[in-house]
Amino acid sequence: MIYLVACGLLVMLFMVPAYFRFSRAGRLLRKIPGSNGSFFYGNTFDVTLSPEKIFQYIRELYKKYGCITKLSGFHIRTINIYEPDDIEKVLSTTRFNEKQRPYDFLKPWLNEGLLTSNGMKWHQRRKLLTPAFHFDIRRKFLLTINEQTEQLLKTIQEEVGKEKTNVLPIMTKSTLRVMCDTSMGISNQYNTSSLAEKYFKAMHIFGSTVVHRMTRVWFYADWFFHLSPTWRTQRATIKDLHRFTNEIIRERKVAQREKSIGVDEVTDDDNGKKRGRLALLDLLLEQEAAGMIDEQGVREEVDTFMFEGHDTTAMALSFMIMAIANEPEVQDKIYEEMKSIFGSSDRSPTMDDLVEMKYLECCIKESLRLYPSVPFIARYLTEEVTLSGYRIPAHTICHIHVLDVHRRADLYPEPERFVPERFGAESAFRRHPYAYIPFSAGPRNCIGQKFAMMEMKSVLSGLVRRFRVEPVTRPGDLRYTADIVLRVTHPLYVRFKPRTDL
User: Fold this and answer.
1) What's the longest Cα–Cα distance across the chain?
2) Which of 450, 183, 136 is CA-nearest to residue 306?
3) How many whole angstroms separate alpha carbon 321 and alpha carbon 8?
4) One domain, residues 379 and 434
């Protein structure tokens, strides 16, 4: 009996790879540039690498094979695309709205929130949440963002005189405070609480477990992954992640019960009538009370936006500060723009001021080109499509490597240089609209991108007006590592000096 079972397993191990290799989908895939790997396992063991090495391995594919490459492992088919026309074909249509792996690996934490859901659920949630990012909401929250920027600048003042400062922890705490105080309507007590500290730590550990799973095809099956030590580690971190957001929801519900939280009357620009607009968590709780969303639905969106709203912005700010520290002339131009807007006043910016920060906006966009907070985007191709002249079979995972698209020399001459003028009106007009996608693009683009830009402008305008930033970490020394967001192996250090020309 054991002999027959063993023989059956051996036959299956041979037949399954043979089926996927010689099926129509397998034949189409073999025509695409890239390594075919082994007959049985494809590229399975080529990608079983450390987070730093797998990031570099994926980047080398573009250099070696060009604008479309393939990877495969057992029954998993993946293509990597770098051509703006192909990216537009995938991202601009609802035909390819669906997300599966690797977003499925985020579901133990985020469940099926806006980032990971599909189909009608995604459509309903997108429609539900869009009003929380309306212009009037952003305008109302600018005061809070400016207050948090002042708190951040006080923290940075304490770093003056030090040889170097790791900017990421400072930015992370600040962006978390902003999310709590604006979208969640919760006090900034979470800046220093033990829950917040555990949340930061758990988020980083969770990211490493996701990468570990992504690079090991045998863990794509939930039942097998749940037998692993990595799953036990991940499960422990999820408790801390959910404990933090559960407390936020609980606190807001208590606040709503203890005092009647009214809705601001604002002008609806669409029809000129007065109507209320709610911040994100209040909007979710209102929908829960109306039976439009359940308690789990509230939490999965709070989990999603607490992660996306603070971590990606913190990384973007940290890379930007490191970048301008290494570009003194750029930093001087930003300062001159601030002087032209504010003069000698130390007041906080208004919405009109933010609009006037044209050069700073170009600098932020150039930093996001070089250091996109989300370095890759994935879509599940539910039907056959032609990309770069190759027929891509249905049920293929399509990866868009934003970092390398943004560093194509034919799209951005001298791509490693920090040149904000690339995003002047004339240059931007000539560029393919899908050659620059730090916030993704199409129907599933980042819902909070305008909020993020507003926050970054507030922080950076205040920072440059009060401090000069000097380089410690050099861009050429950066070593990237695979994670949910763009991370580096070593801290991003700068040196802060007070401005003497105030």
Assistant:
1) 87
2) 183
3) 59
4) yes
Q: Residues within the annotated binding site?
A: 446
What DSSP element (H or E) covers 37? none
Task: Quote the CA–CA distance of 297 and 302 in Å, as a whole number.
Answer: 9
Tokens describing residue 169 = 């922890």
Q: What is the pLDDT of residues 400-431, one digit of tens each?
A: 999 999 999 999 999 999 999 999 877 777 89
- Give CA–CA dist 225/13, Å, rounded: 20
Residue closest to 440 by CA, chosen among 374, 396, 487, 388: 374
One DSSP character per residue, 46-82 reads TS---HHHHHHHHHHHHHHH-SEEEEEETTEEEEEE-
Can you say which residues are annotated as belonging to the binding site for heme?
Answer: 446
pLDDT digits (tens, 9 = 90+) for 283-313: 898 888 888 889 999 999 999 999 988 999 9
The one-letter code for the residue type at 7 is C
Q: Does residue 43 lie within any of the structural domains?
A: no
CATH of the domain at 82: 1.10.630.10
Same domain? 76 vs 23: no
Give the C-alpha distances (Å, rounded to integers) separating 337 from 321, 353, 497: 17, 11, 19
Which tokens belong to 385? 């499509």
Judge whether 262 lies within some domain: yes
Range of the domain at 147: 50-498
